[in-house]
Amino acid sequence: MADQRGGIFVKGVVGAMSAMAMLATAQNFPTKPMRLVVGYTPGGAVDFTARLIGQKMTEMIGQPVVIENRPGASTAIATEKVAIAGADGYTLLLIPTSTAIQSALRKKLPYDLDKDFSAISLLAVGPFALIVHPSVPVKTVAELIRYAKDHSGQLSVASPGVGSANHLAAELFNMRTKSSILHVPYKGSGEAVVAVASAQTPMSLPSMASVLSLIEAGRVRALAVTSLVRVSSLPSVPTLDESGLPGFDYAAWYGVHAPAGVSLSIVNQLNGLILKILQLPEVKETFHKQGMESQASTPLEFHQRIKNEIALSRKLLQLAGIKPE
């Protein structure tokens, strides 16, 4: 009996010491450089967001935050790398909408987005712009819907690729308007936008950042934005909600994950740090110039957003006739 009590006592002491060590580590965090992994090459909205946040984190914590670009497999390479990283908070993932879509599009991934990560916070949201080439004889969403139905099977929409967020935004538009606009995938967002500006494809739903200059130059016509509220960089362009599609709200988002198992204390520290960064006027203004809005969240809110995105993506992929691979 004494031996049992002694064993219990020793286990209790070891457990308490382990908990104290974890607490001390969390209180001293961070004490060395951190990595923010990105599933795309340098350039573009995802990399831009990572570098902006990484720079501000470096300034606030006094430790370098290194941006590590690991492109390939539609962000799966970068995502897997972080999933198997040490759960100490020093390796983070910049996760965009496309990573959540991959969980709906692919049956076999080397990670589980729901179980292998600790959500930290949402960073920013960027709606899409519904654009047409000026030669398309429509100036409002209502006119576009009528035109699409009068030319059923003839109107097409460009996107950066099958299963991209832009593609799913177009499928959601098809679903809400009961249209049959054909999808034309390109090799990237730049090519899809150029296709509309050069009249190769009549319409698209690109990110605001990729199309603002073309809208201002009159090379494409913006009919609406996909968020529930108007975008400050295009205040005269209505939302789809205002344009006869009530509740239409679909946007690209960007956030931060850590590997599963990171202590709650460190998760909360990182969340608080990001909240401070997103409140900085210069950060808000920088996002604004890219057609994006800074937006923080709690870890739980961000986790739920990802689950909702996966569920919606499955529905839209099914609508588009795309089966998970």
Summarize the helices and strands and which ones pair or pack.
Blueprint lengths: L1 H27 L5 E5 L5 H18 L3 E5 L6 H8 L7 E6 H9 L11 E11 L1 E4 L8 H10 L5 E4 L5 H13 L4 E4 L3 H9 L5 E2 L3 H9 L4 E5 L25 E9 L4 H15 L2 H9 L3 E2 L4 H21 L6
Parallel strand pairs: 1-2, 1-3, 6-7, 6-8
Antiparallel strand pairs: 3-10, 4-10, 4-11, 5-8, 5-9
Helix pairs in contact: 2-9, 4-11, 6-11
- Report the average pLDDT across residues: 90
What would CATH call the architecture of the largest domain?
A: 3-Layer(aba) Sandwich
Please tally the helical runs, counting DSSP H or I stretches of 4 or more residues.
11
State the strand order across the main sheet.
2-1-3-10-4-11
Major beta sheet summary:
6 strands, mixed
* General form: globular
- Count of distinct structural domains: 2
How much of the sequence lies in strands comes to 15-25%
What is the CATH domain class of the largest domain?
Answer: Alpha Beta
Helix content: 40-55%
Beta strands, count: 11
Label the structural class: alpha/beta
N-end to C-end Cα span: 58 Å
The sequence of SSEs as H and E is HEHEHEHEEHEHEHEHEEHHEH
What is the CATH topology assignment of the largest domain? Answer: D-Maltodextrin-Binding Protein, domain 2
Radius of gyration computed on alpha carbons: 22 Å
**Which residue ranges are poorly predicted, with pLDDT under 50 across at least 5 consecutive positions?**
13-25
